[in-house]
Design brief:
- There is one protein chain.
- The chain is α+β, with helices and mostly antiparallel strands.
- The protein has one domain.
- It is 42% helix and 17% strand.
- A two-stranded antiparallel ribbon has the order 1-2.
- The radius of gyration is 13 Å and the shape is elongated.
């Protein structure tokens, strides 16, 4: 499971799933989670959230 807290201090679940037997799970899914988080931040920006 990969999650982050956005600038509003809300927890965002980015990726969920089993990683048993997958040696490269983090290598594969961390970049995807980063892209999803960036997209989330763009939505917040478009909705007028200004980090403060």
């Amino acid at each position: 499971m990969l999650y982050a807290f956005d600038p509003r201090r809300c927890a965002i679940l980015l990726i969920g799933g089993g990683k048993t037997g997958q040696d490269r799970w983090y290598h594969e899914y961390v970049p995807l989670a980063e892209r999803l988080y960036d997209e989330h931040l763009e939505v917040l920006k478009k909705e007028g959230f200004d980090n403060g």
